[in-house]
């Protein structure tokens, strides 16, 4: 197919011929085209169907404000719905399909909605699908979802990568039109670090779409030269294809750079897009202005667009949308489009409702006339005009440019709660209160002439950087005054579109007002005016104007809705960046990881840590077999477990002991050097926060352990107490979690194994239960030894610098070979601690007190500690408080699952009669039945009682016996052996 | 003399991607020093003896064989070659006595040297530091791939040293390689 | 938001962990006769002003300083940033 609408000129590379398809049909375009400009060049005006009524639609604009021409780009996993054809940069092999249709684009079966449009007015869904209630989810919603909506997802993983990054600069300039370029030039020449960002792939803004010059050059040439000069400067970062999406606090801006969207697939390892966070001292907003349409009947046919869009397609892209074109304008800028098109050989008729509209020698101007209706099923063929004398005239044309004036692009000025101010001369909102550090220049400020933009850009940059000296001489440029007579909609218009993306008409706004939705925010929600991908950039002003008229108010009295980031839609992939799949969060590997992999360990994620869960042997078919074996082997002889993941904090200083006295509810001042003590940490409200051990390595040096999960918050809490509550205590804290590889060696033969490793005497006399100290291993490597036991067995924890962790585990396995030493994972660890009745995260669940844990007497009354005062509250010290107990099934075959609740053996089973709940449960291979830890009201006085353990949700109802939580070795003889 | 062989945090081979070379540096022994109450002056004197100067806020003293950087108020990290200073914590403690708390840190960190023309571009998509405004000896604590790291701008303009948590050496290295590929 | 750290200069608030009302520095005296009441107030009752607020931020991904940040909760304007240790000392928490 030939590019029948392609004309001379423009900034496209006619030597670069690009082939692309739209709805399966092959077309050709050129480098520098957008998908929309290339389709228009090929005579394709129809690009989509509207949201609600499935009306045929073509592009309304030539930019990112586009409401209509939304297409699906690419295919397969890269299929991307709802992309704007007006900004999609053409590349060779691009495939695009239209969306929101049933059947073909030109024969959409759902176009029937347009015939029944009387029913689909504002609030239709709210009114219609109220009853019966159950029908909403099952019947109405699926049908509506299928009929409405826009593009569809591929339901495949996005194959592309996205990066996130951070940039810092002195001055960020948003928009590279005349104001932005001039601001960048002024700032860059002063030596400041400048970022100039523009959403377009070609910098220059409107200069690329206009015919007038700057100085002696064409505007587009001046832009290109300026860009070249800026590119050569090391202190300037030019970011084309980069949309600033939001102005956040204190000079922080979000930006999306489309690195690879203009090529078929990103190069290997390259991101498709980068989400930048830009930190800047000052910002010049030079985001330009957006032309607004006028509402008239059937103003949404393909071929009808803003006048400036027609001008862009002609001047920048070398496309005449129609060789006969109408211009409907209420301002002089619309006449500029007429002049430009005429110069390109297009037959033009201008319809201007102003009786004093400027006349032309070249083309027909119908002053005092209005467009009252249009014709053409799939694209504009005729417009109907009411002339100043009241008679009607039909004009044949394929394109109609509409201009209702220009709206300064105030979006970004409002992201920090700012609201724009009304400007009568422009009949538009202009920036008012600005985010800190922002200055607005050019059309975004309301200076709509090119000369105004150049002066504004230079002035803004000078003000932002506080530059002294004389203002540089600026090139001559067009400086036409703004002449606009507010004109929002044609009298009598009804099916006249305000918001083409959401199919909101003048009639809908009137209906909304009539039904009482008079606040602008209510209007938006009720009619959906200004929602979806374009956020009403071309629609909102018309709606506001009609609202104002109906309410008898001025437009500023009606006000605007909030402008919120992002400025244009952002792909979820860009927000996620690299953090997806395996890279969602980093992994932490223990020092034994490589060795454990060799053993065939099954790993479990604990926080970010990968911990060995169990070590299956050949022939073991279930995890329970492995875990039971590990537990029995450890209790029978000796086992080894990597406990590096426990948080470790080095606490040093003259007041180290006093500090621990403060953070633990039990006392540490009198703990002798060379001893370890269990410590329970409370929150200030008296609830248990964490537990662990503190080993006194020296008078002024403790090694504190925390649970794996709480390592970070406990360290933070310790810093809080140190810096904020006891600021003059001499205590220094530093985390050493990863500095030491630490292994638990547990079981009756633990000492025999370690005697072969540790260089010092570790006999029971020399190194009794709860001893600790610096030792050496394997002939002199510095190490730390702690005689502590989580399993309840004779046990030690041995720590060496992490680099030696791999060597040490292999050495321990060698040394233990004669005792059949068994590595055990977190499951066996859990079983053994439950058999011993030790609390863990399930028991310290954020609701439990020391008393609940059976440790009430540990809370020292002789000293102050965090949480001590409030732990003594009456409400936390009732006679029937929960107490930790053990649970065993009456029938040994029964399970006693965690989460189940305890009820009296006889009586109702309901929340009112709840007696407690199971926190942890497992099968005990030593006892041969399931066991559990539980909290039970007044539990310590109910040992021996038979109760019902129930979980109505999962169908559990088991008779259980309350017992001591110390299932194994209640006297603690093993660990002292 | 013990007979245990240390293993590197990662054991990754040096890779050059585009202009950027990423190398694991296994030869750094580390210890943290925190001045005790009333020990600030004595501690500063020792640090000056060892490093030539006390590292200022946000700064490194690049010195041989020991180098050091500021970690927090009255707190520094001291590094030196592992083959001569494996006992750096003991050495420092012997000099500092009760003037400071010393904690061995060698095992806690993985160290990567990142060198090359596009190192700044790589930094920009890795972490939130103003790399182009940093000068030799500047150090920033920052997050790389959700990991708390120190980034030290070394003497050469295109060289940074990254200290990251050892247990996440693999994840950190992966993030570095990914970023280098992205900007290559 | 950007927090101007007294030692390190401007840093993104993402490097910090927020804790809330800086009144948490004023931990009551446990030996007071009305300690039960004052601790209850301390632990549970906080102001939630729309406007200026002194709050605690922890430079977790930085130098691990606790800071007292005076911030307007309506505008996010930050008027003052202090080291919490200095504030605690000034408020008489030295031993």
Helix fraction of chain C by DSSP (H/I, runs of at least 4): 10-25%
The CATH superfamily of chain C bears the name Folate-binding superfamily
Query: How many strand elements of chain A?
Result: 50
Instruction: Give the beta-strand count of chain C.
Output: 6
- Overall pLDDT of chain C, averaged? 96
Gross geometry of chain C:
globular
> How far apart, in Å, are the first and last alpha carbons of chain C?
35 Å
CATH topology of the domain at 1-157 in chain A: Ubiquitin-like (UB roll)
Oligomer: heterotrimer
Give a written overview of the molecule.
- The complex is a heterotrimer of chains A (977), B (184) and C (95).
- In chain A, the strands form 13 sheets. In chain A, strands 8, 9, 12, 13, 14, 15 and 28 form a seven-stranded mixed β-sheet that branches. Chain A has a six-stranded mixed β-sheet with strand order 41-42-43-40-34-44. Chain A has a six-stranded antiparallel β-barrel with strand order 45-48-47-46-49-50.
- Among the domains of chain A are: 1-157, Ubiquitin-like (UB roll) (Roll); 295-403, FAD/NAD(P)-binding domain, CATH 3.50.50; 497-553; 646-736, 2-Layer Sandwich (Alpha-Beta Plaits), CATH 3.30.70.1400; 878-977, Elongation Factor Tu (Ef-tu), domain 3, CATH 2.40.30.110.
- In chain A, helix 5 runs parallel beside helix 6 and helix 7 runs parallel beside helix 8.
- Chain A is α+β, with helices and mostly antiparallel strands.
- Chain B has 184 residues and is α+β, with helices and mostly antiparallel strands.
- Chain B has two domains: 15-26 and 108-183, Probable tRNA modification gtpase trme, domain 1 (Gyrase A, domain 2); 28-104, 2-Layer Sandwich (Alpha-Beta Plaits).
- Chain B has helices spanning 40-51, 82-85, 88-96, 119-124, 169-183; strands at 15-17, 20-24, 28-35, 60-61, 67-72, 75-81, 100-104, 109-115, 139-144, 147-153, 159-165.
- In chain B, the strands form two sheets. A six-stranded antiparallel β-sheet of chain B has the order 1-2-8-11-10-9, with helices on one face. In chain B, strands 4-5-6-3-7 form a five-stranded antiparallel β-sheet.
- The mean pLDDT of chain B is 96.
- By secondary structure, chain C is of the alpha+beta class.
- The model of chain C has no long low-confidence stretch (mean pLDDT 96).
- Chain C is globular and about 45 Å long.
- Chain C has one domain: Folate-binding fold (2-Layer Sandwich), CATH 3.30.2270.
- The interface between A and B is large, with 63 and 52 residues.
């Amino acid at each position: 197919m030939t590019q029948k609408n392609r004309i001379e000129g423009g900034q496209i590379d006619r030597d670069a011929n690009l082939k692309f398809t739209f709805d399966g049909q092959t077309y050709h375009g050129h480098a520098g085209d957008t998908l929309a400009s290339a389709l228009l060049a090929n005579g394709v005006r129809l690009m989509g169907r509207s949201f609600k009524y499935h009306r045929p639609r073509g592009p309304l604009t030539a930019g990112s404000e586009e409401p209509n021409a939304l297409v699906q780009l690419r295919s397969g996993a890269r299929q991307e719905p709802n992309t704007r054809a007006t900004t999609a940069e053409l590349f060779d092999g691009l495939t695009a399909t239209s969306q929101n249709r049933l059947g073909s684009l030109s024969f959409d079966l759902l176009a029937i909605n347009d015939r029944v449009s009387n029913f689909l007015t504002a609030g239709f869904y709210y009114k219609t699908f109220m009853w019966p209630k159950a029908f909403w989810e099952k019947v109405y919603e699926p049908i509506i979802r299928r009929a409405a909506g826009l593009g569809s997802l591929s339901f495949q993983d996005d194959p592309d990568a996205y990066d996130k990054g951070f940039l810092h600069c002195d001055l960020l300039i948003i928009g590279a039109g005349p104001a932005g370029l001039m601001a960048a030039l002024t700032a860059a020449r002063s030596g400041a670090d400048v970022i100039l960002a523009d959403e377009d792939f070609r910098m220059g803004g409107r200069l690329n779409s206009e015919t007038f010059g700057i100085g002696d050059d064409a505007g587009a040439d001046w832009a290109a030269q300026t860009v070249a000069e800026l590119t050569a400067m090391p202190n300037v970062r030019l970011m084309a294809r980069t949309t600033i999406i939001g102005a956040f606090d204190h000079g922080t801006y979000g930006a999306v750079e489309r690195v690879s969207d203009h090529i078929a697939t990103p190069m290997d390892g390259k991101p498709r897009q980068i989400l930048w966070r830009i930190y800047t001292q000052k910002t010049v907003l030079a985001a330009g202005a957006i032309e607004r349409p006028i509402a008239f009947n059937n103003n949404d046919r393909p071929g009808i667009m803003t006048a400036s869009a027609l001008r862009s397609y002609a001047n920048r892209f070398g496309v005449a949308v129609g060789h006969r074109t109408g211009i409907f304008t209420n301002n002089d800028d619309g006449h500029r489009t007429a002049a430009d098109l005429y110069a390109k050989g297009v037959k033009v008729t201008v319809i201007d409702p102003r009786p004093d509209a400027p006349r032309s020698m070249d083309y027909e101007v119908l002053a005092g006339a209005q467009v009252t209706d249009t014709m053409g099923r799939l694209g504009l063929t005729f417009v109907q005009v009411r002339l100043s004398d009241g008679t009607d005239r039909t004009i044949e044309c394929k394109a109609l440019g509409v201009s209702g004036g220009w709206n300064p692009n105030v979006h970004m000025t409002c992201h920090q709660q700012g609201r724009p101010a009304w400007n009568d001369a422009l009949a538009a909102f202009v920036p008012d209160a600005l985010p800190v550090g922002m200055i607005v220049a050019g059309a975004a400020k309301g200076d709509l002439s090119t000369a105004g933009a150049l002066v504004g850009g230079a002035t803004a940059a000078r003000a932002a950087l506080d530059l002294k000296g004389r203002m540089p001489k600026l090139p001559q440029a067009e400086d036409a005054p703004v002449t606009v007579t507010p004109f929002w909609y044609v009298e009598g218009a009804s099916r006249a579109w305000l918001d083409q993306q959401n199919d909101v008409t003048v009639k809908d706004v009137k209906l909304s007002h009539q039904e009482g939705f008079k606040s602008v925010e209510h209007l938006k929600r009720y009619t959906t005016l200004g929602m979806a991908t374009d956020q009403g950039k071309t629609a909102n002003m018309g709606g506001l104007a009609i609202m104002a008229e109906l309410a008898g108010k001025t437009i500023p009295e009606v006000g605007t809705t909030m402008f919120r980031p992002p400025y244009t839609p952002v792909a979820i992939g860009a927000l996620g960046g690299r953090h997806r799949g395996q890279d969602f969060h980093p992994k932490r590997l223990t020092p034994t990881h490589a060795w454990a992999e060799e053993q065939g360990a099954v790993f479990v994620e604990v926080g970010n840590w990968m911990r060995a869960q169990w070590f299956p042997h050949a022939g073991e078919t279930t995890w329970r077999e492995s875990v039971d074996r590990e537990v029995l082997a450890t209790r029978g002889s000796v086992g080894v477990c990597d406990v590096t993941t426990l948080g470790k904090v080095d606490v040093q200083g003259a007041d180290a002991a006093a500090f621990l006295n403060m953070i633990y509810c039990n006392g540490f001042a009198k703990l002798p050097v060379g001893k370890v003590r269990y410590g329970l940490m409370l929150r200030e409200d008296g609830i248990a926060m964490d537990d662990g051990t503190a080993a006194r390595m020296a008078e002024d040096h403790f090694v504190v352990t925390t649970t794996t999960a709480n390592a970070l918050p406990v360290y933070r809490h310790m810093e809080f107490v140190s810096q904020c509550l006891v600021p003059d205590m001499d205590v220094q804290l530093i985390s050493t979690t990863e500095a030491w590889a630490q292994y638990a060696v547990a079981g009756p033969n633990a000492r025999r194994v370690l005697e072969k490793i540790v260089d010092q005497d570790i006999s029971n006399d020399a190194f009794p239960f709860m001893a600790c100290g610096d030792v050496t291993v394997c002939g002199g490597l510095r190490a730390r030894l702690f005689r502590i036991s989580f399993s309840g067995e004779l046990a030690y924890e041995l720590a060496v610098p992490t680099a030696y962790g791999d060597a040490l585990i292999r050495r321990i396995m060698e040394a233990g070979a004669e005792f059949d030493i068994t590595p055990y994972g977190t499951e066996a660890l859990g079983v053994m601690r439950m058999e011993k009745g030790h609390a863990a995260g399930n028991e310290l669940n954020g609701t439990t007190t020391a008393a609940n844990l059976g440790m009430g007497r540990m809370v020292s009354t002789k000293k102050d500690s965090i949480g001590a005062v409030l732990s003594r509250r009456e409400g936390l010290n009732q006679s029937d408080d929960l107490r930790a107990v053990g649970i065993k099934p009456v029938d040994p075959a029964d399970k006693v699952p965690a989460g189940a609740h305890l009820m009296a053996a006889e009586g109702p089973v309901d929340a009112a009669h709840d007696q407690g709940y199971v926190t942890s449960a497992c099968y005990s291979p030593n006892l041969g039945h399931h066991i559990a830890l539980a909290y039970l009201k007044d539990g310590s006085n109910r040992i021996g009682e038979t109760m019902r353990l129930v979980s109505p949700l999962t169908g559990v109802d088991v008779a259980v016996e309350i017992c001591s939580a110390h299932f194994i070795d209640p006297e603690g003889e093993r660990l002292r052996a | 003399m013990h007979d245990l062989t240390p293993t590197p945090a990662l054991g990754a081979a040096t890779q050059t991607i585009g202009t950027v070379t990423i190398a694991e540096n296994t030869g750094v022994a580390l210890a943290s020093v925190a001045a005790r109450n009333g020990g600030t002056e004595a501690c500063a004197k020792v640090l000056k003896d060892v490093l030539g100067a006390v590292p200022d806020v946000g700064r490194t003293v690049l010195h041989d064989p020991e180098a050091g950087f500021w970690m927090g108020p009255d707190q520094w990290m001291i590094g030196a070659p592992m083959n001569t200073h494996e006992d750096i914590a003991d050495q420092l403690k012997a000099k500092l006595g009760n003037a400071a708390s010393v904690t061995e840190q060698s095992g806690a960190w993985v160290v990567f040297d990142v060198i090359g023309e596009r190192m700044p571009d790589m930094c920009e998509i890795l972490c939130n530091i103003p790399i182009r405004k940093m000068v030799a000896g500047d150090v920033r604590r920052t997050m790389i791939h959700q990991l708390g790291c120190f980034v030290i701008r070394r003497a050469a303009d295109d060289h940074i040293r990254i200290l990251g948590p050892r247990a996440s050496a693999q994840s950190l290295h992966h993030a570095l390689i990914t970023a280098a590929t992205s900007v290559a | 938001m950007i927090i101007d750290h007294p030692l390190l200069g401007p840093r993104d608030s993402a490097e910090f962990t927020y804790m809330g009302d800086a009144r948490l520095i004023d931990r009551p005296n446990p030996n007071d006769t009305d300690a039960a009441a004052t601790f209850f107030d301390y632990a549970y009752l906080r102001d939630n002003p729309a406007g200026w607020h002194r709050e605690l931020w922890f430079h977790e991904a930085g130098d691990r300083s606790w800071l007292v940040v005076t911030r307007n909760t309506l505008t996010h304007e930050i008027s003052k940033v202090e080291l919490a240790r200095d504030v605690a000392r000034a408020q008489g928490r030295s031993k």
